[in-house]
Fold this protein.
Amino acid sequence: MHPPGARPASFSTPAGAPFNSGPRYPIMRPMGFDLGGRRALVTGASAGIGAEIARELAARGADLTLAARRADRLEALAASLRSEHGVSAEVIPADLAAPGGAAALIDRCGETPAVDVLVNNAGIGMHGDGVGHPWEDERGMIQLNVLSVAELTKHFAAQMRARGTGRILQVASTASFLPCPGYAAYGATKAFVLHHAEALDEELRDCDVRVLALCPGSTNTAFFEISGNVRGRAQVATSLDPVDVARAGVDAIERSRRVTVPGLANKLTTAGLRVIPRRLQATLARRVLE
Ligand SMILES: NC(=O)c1ccc[n+]([C@@H]2O[C@H](COP(=O)([O-])OP(=O)(O)OC[C@H]3O[C@@H](n4cnc5c(N)ncnc54)[C@H](OP(=O)(O)O)[C@@H]3O)[C@@H](O)[C@H]2O)c1
């Protein structure tokens, strides 16, 4: 269907393997991705957006591997996915804020059945005094939001590329688009997630592996309580239901959309940021987020 073409000779990994090896798509990669019968690994599936993404994937016929720390919640979700949608669903307890947590999850996933869809959703925020947060807490957040995401992505993207197809959905944030006083380190982790996804997606342009970013704004989950933040009026007014955010994310997988910002207010905000000087962005963000 898509004949292999010539590979550029100049780019290679340290190991010597061309990073864009695999079949080439000279004009456009295939856009559609049928989820029926695929195996999807969803991190942070025990609550909030991740649980809704798992439900939406199952409703569209995907088999699920669910990961997070709270195994009891994962087991309850897996049981309901099996009975409501007739898909297979397995649970792997994982602490992705712990060093070695992502490697342990990779080991548990094994090679077969292959992971066709990876959703890197697990994440937490830390609100308040960026200098004063205990380092061990902040390090854990960075491990969870950045290092585990990068490690899982590298591993499963390599497997997908070897098989010639796959989708990775990174749950970034509207915080990815600007400096976030009040959420300084959290915002920076989400900037990493968005830039990393966009760059990898471009690197992989010659094969049918896509790295897609979902950038929710304020969403009605436990995120703010866990972050130690009380939302302001503007955030509450524009908050979305996690079901709608999840649907936008799974649509993005099926349609291979590189960056998705759910909700009109969030779309307008992120589009408007393009014309606002960065220094002013930080000042405005401080008013909303602090
Ligand atoms: N809610 C928002 O307004 C908002 C906006 C933009 C982006 N996001 C992003 O959306 C993603 C999901 O957040 P949410 O809003 O759905 O929050 P949530 O309801 O608190 O869910 C967070 C999920 O991450 C998992 N998690 C937390 N720490 C973990 C750890 N150490 N190891 C493994 N899993 C862990 C939690 O499971 P366990 O506690 O069971 O481990 C839970 O399943 C996050 O990446 C967040 O940054 C949220």
Confidence is low (pLDDT under 50) at residues 1-16. The domain at 39-289 is CATH 3.40.50.720 (Rossmann fold). The radius of gyration is 19 Å. The first strand starts at residue 39 and ends at 43.
